[in-house]
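Please decode residue identities from the backbone states below.
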């Protein structure tokens, strides 16, 4: 992973709105043509209404024109190798291939690299809906 993706996730993490859990998360993704989109988690006083950093990044990615996602970095302030929740795995998988790399980071950089296929085997496939 080039350092800019990690830096984008880190910068996003610093913008997290997490006053309830104090668990700040940043995510950044890169498209095939090199664009980078990042996001932070957003918490709401009505707890189930909050959403994850990965989901914020996906919103920016769609508004920035979408495309094929080739790599993703996730970083949490208080946890090394923060792994995307089940819902975010399904959301990310919508725009990735099984071989898309996902970098689970710590404060220094990549701590572990996995693929989306490993993260979400047997995820729901929407092909039949198209
Ligand atoms: N969270 C993320 O933003 N991404 C993850 O991959 C795991 C969890 C957020 C949601 C919530 O704001 C906080 O972390 C604690 O669950």
């Amino acid at each position: 992973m080039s350092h800019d993706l990690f830096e984008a996730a880190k910068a996003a993490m610093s913008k997290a709105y997490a006053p309830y859990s104090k668990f700040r998360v940043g995510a950044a993704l890169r498209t095939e043509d090199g664009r980078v989109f990042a996001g932070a988690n957003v918490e709401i006083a009505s707890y189930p209404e909050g959403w994850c950093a990965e989901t914020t990044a996906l919103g920016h990615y769609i508004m920035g024109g979408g495309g094929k996602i080739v790599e993703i970095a996730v970083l949490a302030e208080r946890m090394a190798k923060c792994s995307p929740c089940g819902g975010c795995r399904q959301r990310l998988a919508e725009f990735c291939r099984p071989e898309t790399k996902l970098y689970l980071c710590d404060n220094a950089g990549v701590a572990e690299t996995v693929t989306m296929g490993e993260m979400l085997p047997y995820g729901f496939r929407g092909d039949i809906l198209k």
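Observation: The mean pLDDT is 96.
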